[in-house]
Structure formats: structure tokens, C-alpha cells
Design goal:
Blueprint (H helix, E strand, L loop, with lengths): L13 E3 L16 E4 L6 E4 L2 E3 L8 H8 L4 E4 L5 H10 L8 E5 L3 H13 L5 E5 L6 H13 L4 E7 L2 H9 L4 E4 L9 H5 L5 H15 L2 E5 L5 H10 L3 E4 L13 E4 L2 E7 L4 H7 L13 E5 L4 H19 L4 H4 L5 E3 L11
Parallel strand pairs: 4-5, 4-11, 5-6, 6-7, 7-8, 8-9, 9-10, 10-11
Antiparallel strand pairs: 1-15, 2-3, 12-13, 13-14
Helix pairs in contact: 5-7, 8-10
The chain binds guanosine-5'-monophosphate.
Guanosine-5'-monophosphate (5GP) binds next to strand 11.
Length: about 350
């Protein structure tokens, strides 16, 4: 046993220190980024915020709304091949730049992925997503996927430490998804004791990825636009959101009426709800590692996007970053023991 003594930080432990700025207005801030990915060499331009591949977030409807503003959606893996085909036929016009096809690492999932790419060769992004990205089997799967799809962008995760980021990039991934345990409906830290505070995970993983020319996605734990700004400030190239994009018209999931108010169901992809829906229940050898919750219904996702992008632009103006790309260079975090004033919130 060994103990690392330096304290790892989450979003709640820091704030971004304001800096002198020559920007007059937040409308001067450009949130678009331009990346050429390490292994596929594909070029991408857009606002690097992603909807999570959860079936109550990363839906086709969410993708249409987000792509409209050049944001990205990791589509959840439970759509059928024919649903993919009809979605793509109805909405082509560049949508392939803003969606990823998600997959796990089983043989069936690899076969389904192959059929989707055979039917829709224009698609460019693959999101290989497992709860624990530390297994040898996962690294092998990333290698095989790279061999099979040399010119597709491969997103792989989740991990939280620099050495595994490097291993996955060397195995052929372009973008590494970072986050174990911070998610709003995640119970991994409670069930297993395993995890890593997200801000430190981003700082350490971004350093490792950028050293090799790769990118990272900060996945999970953002509850406010301010957290998204902190994630970019820490060095994330992309930020993935689950809960912040749940509860909308586009988010999928059931609508629930309770006490005259409207809610939507939102749940982790390893929750009992998800496992009952897709895997015939919770297998005997495992525990559910996700919550099922109800979130207030929030109408069209567009208003939420505006709130998020406005907050992010404002963060950039506070530190004098004219482009999102400059945010991390201009970020000094201060460690704090307070966040929002809670007097009028409950
Ligand atoms: P949020 O933005 O809601 O805080 O986090 C979203 C992320 O939580 C997802 O992208 C995914 O990485 C993670 N997640 C989703 N469902 C589950 C789950 O059932 N268990 C765990 N451990 N993580 C989950």
C-alpha cells in the first residue's frame, strides 16, 4: 500500500482568478476550436462541448439541436442499425462532423459498429466507451479498432491518469475520455471507493495527452457553466455533459407528472434502470453503479445551450481570453473554501 500525499482537486475546490483584459464584450469571444487529431489526421472545427452517450442525453434529437450550433453528440449505443440509417438519411448536411457512434468492447458490439460504418461510410467518429479503461482487453480493442478504421477518429475511455492516456493514444486512439466517478448519476466512488477528483484528472491527463499531440475530453461532474469553464481552464480540449443536458424535449426518457410539476427520468448507463432495459437485469456478479433520478423538465435544449455558451464566453472575458483556446493559458486557479452564496437557494 502507498499513499500519495498531494491533495487532488475537484471543481468545487477552486475558482478562476480574474485578470486584466482588453475585451470589451463577451460577443468578441470565439468558442470554436480547430483540431487535427493525432492518429486519424482528421481536422475538426466546432465548439468542443459534447453530449454524453447516455440514452437520456445523447439522442438523435439532441444531436440535431447541438450540431446546429456546432456542438458534438456522442450518440448512445442502443440505437438499431436501421434507426441510424434513417437518422442519417433525414439529416445529412454535415451532421457526420458532430456525431460519434458509441460502442462497448464485446464481439456483438464490434460487429454492429462494422455494419453501421458499412452502411454509412461518411460517419467519422467512434466512441469506445467502458467504465474502466484500465484493462488490457480494452487496449487491445482500441488497437484492433484502429487497424480496422485507419481514417476514423477514435475516442477512448474512461481513464484518469497520465500513463493510461499515453498508452491509449499509442494504441491508436485520437481523443481520450477522462473521468472515473464524478458523474451526476454515478455511484462508482460509493460502490468501489475508486475515483479521482476531476479537476486534477484533467490537469494531469491533458498534460500527458498534449505531450504526445493527442486530446482529452473531460467527462462528468460539470453541474454549472462555471464548472465547464474550469474544465477548459484546466486543459480539457472537450467537455462532455450528461446531467446538464438531461430533462429537455430532445433528451429522451420518460416524462413524469408529480404534484402539478413536470419531470423527466434520468439515469446512469450502469444503473439498474439501464441494465433492466438493455441487459435483461443486473448480472449476478456485478452491482449497479448508477442512480435513477427525476430532473425538472426544462423545455427545448436551445435555452440551456445559450446559458452554457454565455457563461463560457463570460469566463473568457474575465481572464482576457479572446478565444477558448487561450482560456487554459490565462487561467490561474485559486484554491477556495467557498463557492456560491447559498442564502437564497435550497
Ligand atoms: P454528468 O455530466 O451527468 O455529471 O456525467 C456524465 C457522465 O457520467 C457520462 O458521460 C458517463 O461517463 C458517466 N456515467 C453515465 N452513467 C453512469 C453510470 O451509470 N455509472 C457511472 N459510474 N458513470 C456513469
Amino acid at each position: 500500500m502507498r499513499i500519495e500525499q498531494d491533495i487532488k482537486l475537484g471543481f468545487k475546490d477552486v475558482m478562476i482568478r480574474p485578470k486584466r483584459s482588453t475585451l470589451k464584450s463577451r460577443s468578441q469571444v470565439n468558442l470554436e476550436r480547430d483540431f487535427t487529431f493525432l492518429n486519424s489526421k482528421i481536422n475538426w472545427k466546432g465548439i468542443p462541448i459534447m453530449a454524453a452517450n447516455m440514452d437520456t442525453v445523447g439522442t438523435f434529437e439532441t444531436a440535431l439541436a447541438l450540431a446546429n450550433k456546432k456542438l458534438f453528440t456522442a450518440i448512445h449505443k442502443h440505437y438499431s442499425i436501421s434507426e441510424w440509417i434513417s437518422f442519417f438519411t433525414e439529416a445529412p448536411n454535415g451532421i457526420e462532423d458532430y456525431v460519434a457512434v458509441s460502442t462497448g468492447t464485446s464481439k456483438n458490439e464490434a460487429e454492429k459498429l462494422a455494419v453501421i460504418f458499412k452502411e454509412i461510410p461518411q460517419l467519422k467518429f467512434i466512441c469506445i466507451d467502458v467504465a474502466n479503461g484500465y484493462s488490457e482487453h480494452f487496449v487491445d480493442f482500441v488497437k484492433r479498432t484502429r487497424n480496422e478504421y485507419p481514417d476514423k477518429v477514435i475516442i477512448a475511455g474512461n481513464v484518469v491518469t497520465g500513463e493510461m492516456v499515453e498508452e491509449l493514444l499509442l494504441a491508436g486512439a485520437d481523443i481520450i475520455k477522462v473521468g472515473i466517478g464524478p458523474g451526476s448519476v454515478c455511484t462508482t466512488r460509493v460502490k468501489t471507493g475508486v475515483g479521482y477528483p476531476q479537476l486534477s484528472a484533467i490537469i494531469e491527463c491533458a498534460d500527458a495527452a498534449h505531450g504526445l499531440g493527442g486530446q482529452i475530453i473531460s467527462d462528468g461532474g460539470c453541474a454549472t457553466p462555471g464548472d465547464i469553464a474550469k474544465a477548459f481552464g484546466a486543459g480539457a480540449d472537450f467537455v462532455m455533459l450528461g446531467g446538464m443536458l438531461a430533462g429537455h424535449d430532445e433528451s429522451g426518457g420518460e416524462i413524469i407528472e408529480q404534484g402539478g410539476k413536470t419531470f423527466k427520468k434520468f439515469y446512469g448507463m450502469s444503473s439498474t434502470t439501464a441494465m433492466e432495459k438493455y441487459a435483461g437485469g443486473v448480472a449476478e456478479y456485478r452491482a449497479s453503479e448508477g442512480k435513477t433520478v427525476t430532473v425538472p423538465y426544462r423545455g427545448p435544449i436551445e435555452n440551456t445551450l445559450q446559458d452554457i455558451l454565455g457563461g463560457l464566453r463570460s469566463a473568457c472575458t474575465y481572464v482576457g481570453a479572446q478565444r477558448l483556446k487561450e482560456l487554459t493559458k490565462r487561467t490561474t486557479f485559486i484554491r477556495v473554501a467557498e463557492q456560491e452564496n447559498q442564502v437564497y437557494t435550497n
